[in-house]
Every structure is written in C-alpha cells, then in structure tokens.
Design a protein that fits this description.
The chain is an alpha+beta fold. It has eleven helices and 18 strands. Helix 3 runs antiparallel to helix 4 and helix 7 crosses helix 8. Its cofactor is Mn(2+); Mg(2+).
Length: 433
C-alpha cells in the first residue's frame, strides 16, 4: 500500500505530500494563465485574384481538448493560376498534422513540428502535382502555440516580427528569389536548371534572374511542375519563443514587400490595433507603388492576457544597438550561444532554424528522434511500409547527417523518386496534361 500511495503522490518542496492530481491541475492552470492573447486582422486588394490566406484559431494538438489549442495564419501568393494556392490552403495543415506522431506532450510536439512542416510541404507539392496542373504558389505558414512561434516558408511572401519592448524588427523568413539568393542559384544550377534573364530581340537581357525552363524567378514553391523538380517545396523553418514581452507579426505577400521595407511596414501601422494595422499596411503599399500585384496582409498581436490589447509601442528614435545582431544569419553551431544572448535581453529565444533544401538533412535520422518517427511509415506521405519496402532517406545522399545510411527515416518508392528528382538525380516522372 505504501508503494502504491507513493506512486499517486509527489512531495511538495516543503516536504508535505501533495496529491498528484492537484499538481497536474495546478500545472494546467499555470499553462492557461501563461498563454498569450492573440488578436489579428487581415486586409487585401486583388489585382490578379491569385492571393489567398488561411486563419485558424481553433486548432488543437489533441482533438477535442481546448487546452491544447494553437493558431495558424498563412499567406499564399499563387502564380500561373490559383489552383496551387487553393489546394495548399485547403490541405497543407492536415498534411503537417498527419506527419506528427500521436500522443506527444506539448514540448515533444513543438520539437517534432519543424520536421513535420517539411514533410507536409513536400507531400502537398507531390499530391498537387498529381493533378497535372501547372500553377504554383508561395507559402508563408505560421503556427502559434502559446508563446512559441514556428514559421515555414517557400517563395517570397514574408513574415516579420516587431518585438514589444525592444523596438527590434526581425525577419522570420528568407526570400527564395533567384535574383537575391546566391546559394539558391547555385543549388538550382547544380540540380539541372538554367538560371538567366529573359532575352529579347538583339540579345539584350531584361528583368530579374529566372529559372529555365518555365521562367520562374523563385527557387522554391509548391506546384510549378512545368518548371522542373529543382524548384523545390522544402521550406525554410524558424522557431522562436517570445519571452512574455509579446510582439506583432506581419505576414504578407510580395505585393506588400515590393512596395515597403520591413521597417516601413512595421512603422506604418504601429500604434493601431491589429485589424486597422493590416488595412494601414495595405493602404501604405498602394500609396507607395499602386496596385500592381495582389496585395495581402495579416497582422497578429501576441500579448499577455493581463495586458490591454494595445499594439507594440512606437519605436524610440534612438537606434537600438541589439538590432545589429538579433536574428542575423549565423552558422548552426552558434544557435545555442545566440539563444542565450536573446534570452538575456528578454526579447526572444531562438529554438530552431534550418533552410537546407536537402531532405536527408531536413528529415534527420531516427536515432536522434526516436519519438517523432515511425520506422514503418513513409516520412513524407505517411504511407504504411512493410519492413522490406522502405528506402532510407540517407541512402546514396552526400547530404546525409547519418553515418549509417541504412537507418531511417524511410521513404516509399514514390517519395524516393520525388527526392531524387528534386536533387537532380533523375527527371521528374510527372507529366503535364
């Protein structure tokens, strides 16, 4: 009896015995108290009818459990038609959730999220391409769970953070424009694509750098099957934790960012509630450049629940010295060091950042993620595999992080063919109808 009683109870710090159920209840109440208030607004002006957005504030890690709730905000900028943007809006979230094992606690769920986002983006691209349609879309996909923000993106839609209390405006995405991204140009060329400008009569070259065939100026997107598999759907992913000061996210298509810098967008709406702020950013972009493209903006304010819903305060005129190093590009081995610095100044803690286009790097290995992978399930499409069917994501890859290429995670034959085509090892087997 004494042993059973000990299993049902834990000692309080004072030495007194406290029922385990009471401790669990206290932890649940603390988590609820610590969850931020989320306020948002959205505004848009249409030119081509190819911009779409997604707002979900009723998602749950555990179905039917409101204490496991999280929010999703996304902007999708379609091109060559709207089919890819619509399909991605309607299916990406379910594909991401399907790549996360059931039964995980919140911290494990958040740790599994970056890899699930990669799998979800690739599966969405693969499933859409089966339709034989040639449209494509950028995606900026934001998941907010408590104070933790996870952003995944392909293309040139963008998400920025205007941190409260610090006056620091930081990019949470990386643009995948060939004109601006040298690493992506080199990757596309190495995978079999040709990068160059549009040639006109007389041999003159005009416009931004594009990938040929197809003429797309982006190196990553969902769809675009007529361009080539070297235009990959593997997202840049960044995960951060706000340290209770809160902040404002501005998520927008390139109709905004071609007109406004990040500082201009944040400054144009500072002092306004989220709904009015989104309208103001769109208004400022139209005033600056006119309506030359679809223009969509979502503003999300994340604040403490015991605070009023005031937006981020005006930026002080004095230049903040932290701005020179917060969220600057860094080598992987400096993540922990930078996170400690950010924690020390009380603005944000960086939890994860990765932008490689290689699935062997992004899907990791099962020995380092035992609880986030099923050896009998395809790591991308979640198809069940017999023990002899799966092909390791590391097999034959020079980008593998595993010293044992026979280890998982594993891919089905179809997803392995997709991976090989993305890396330029074989032409895509998908044909345009």
């Amino acid at each position: 009896m004494a042993g059973g009683d000990g299993e049902r109870r834990r000692r309080h710090s004072s030495g007194a015995m406290v029922p385990l159920a009471l401790l669990i209840g206290e932890e649940a109440r603390m988590e609820k108290m610590e969850r931020p208030r989320i306020r948002y607004g959205c505004a848009a002006q249409s030119k081509k009818g190819e911009d779409y957005f997604l707002i979900r504030t009723d998602c749950c890690r555990v179905p039917g459990d409101p204490s496991s709730s999280f929010s999703v905000f996304a902007v999708l900028d379609g091109h060559n038609g709207n089919a890819a943007a619509i399909y991605t809006r309607d299916n990406l979230l379910s594909h991401v959730m399907g790549a996360i094992p059931h039964g995980l606690g919140r911290e494990e769920w958040l740790q599994a999220l970056p890899r699930a986002l990669v799998a979800g983006f690739v599966k969405t691209d693969k499933e859409f391409q089966r339709k034989g349609q040639t449209s494509g879309t950028t995606v900026t996909f934001v998941i907010i769970d408590g104070w933790t923000i996870t952003v995944a993106s392909v293309g040139d839609s963008r998400c920025i953070l205007d941190a409260q209390g610090g006056g620091v405006i930081s990019a949470l995405t990386v643009d995948h424009r060939l004109e601006e991204n040298v690493e992506e140009r080199e990757r596309v060329a190495a995978s079999g694509g040709e990068v160059g400008r549009l040639s006109i009569v007389g041999g003159a070259e005009i416009g931004p750098l594009r990938c040929w065939p197809g003429g797309l100026c982006l190196s990553r997107s969902i769809g675009d099957m007529d361009v080539g598999e070297f235009i990959v759907p593997v997202p840049y992913v960044k995960q951060i934790k706000l340290l209770k000061a809160g902040g404002r996210l501005i998520i927008a298509s390139d109709g905004i960012w071609d007109a406004l810098t990040s500082d201009m967008a944040a400054n144009s709406c500072r002092g306004l509630p989220a709904e009015l702020a989104a309208r103001q950013v769109v208004k400022e972009a139209l005033r600056t450049r006119g309506l030359k493209d679809d223009t969509t903006c979502i503003v999300v304010d994340i604040t403490q629940t015991d605070q009023s819903s005031e937006p981020p305060p005006s930026t002080p005129k004095k230049v903040n010295r932290l701005k020179s190093f917060i969220f600057r590009k860094k080598p992987k081995d400096s993540v922990t060091k930078l996170s400690k610095k950010l924690s020390a100044v009380g603005i944000v803690e960086e939890l994860f950042e990765e932008g490689s286009a290689m699935l062997a790097e992004r899907l990791g290995n099962d020995s380092s993620a035992e609880k986030t992978s099923n050896v009998f399930t395809c790591a991308i499409c979640q198809a069940m595999l017999a023990p002899s069917e799966g092909v390791s994501v590391h097999a034959g890859s020079i980008f593998s992080t595993s010293s044992k290429p026979w280890e998982g995670p594993f891919l089905c034959a179809d997803c392995r063919n997709k991976k090989d085509a993305m890396e330029g090892k074989r032409p895509s087997g998908v044909k345009v109808l």
